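User: structure tokens for this one?
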Amino acid sequence: MRKLKITELNRISAEEFKEAEKLPLVVVLDDVRSLHNIGSVFRTADAFRIECIYLCGITAVPPHPEMHKTALGAEFTVSWKYVDNAVNAVDNLREEGYVVYSVEQAEGSVMLDHFEPDRTKKYAIVMGNEVKGVQQVVIDHSDGCIEIPQYGTKHSLNVSVTAGIVMWDLFRKLR
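Assistant:
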């Protein structure tokens, strides 16, 4: 087995990315404070050709040098919008025909490994603040909650790790 050189990866250009078909998935970041977490979500969204990222509340917007450290340019390829608060983002997405799930530990949440999306629908997933998670009012406006099963002593994951797990799982199930 030999590690591939960067020239062997056949990556598409930024222009080709902009024109490429996207996964019908929007990621909503609600009051995410860490520029590194935001950048990491952009980079993962690029990897799976996510349609768009909504940056809400205190979530920083590109360009920013600290965000760029983890985004590595994905902040320039992945479409994004700033919305003043996540409730407005969720309501707007639902009006546009998206099924919106908050990713949170909540009563009645669906475990990610049991979640079966309908391939004919568009989805949005809401990721919450690093400390407080998704706001209850945002959950109230969502169609439901998805939860990542966890079996250790800790029952929380970093927001960028959570976003990566959920994006990968939905990419697998929707493409």
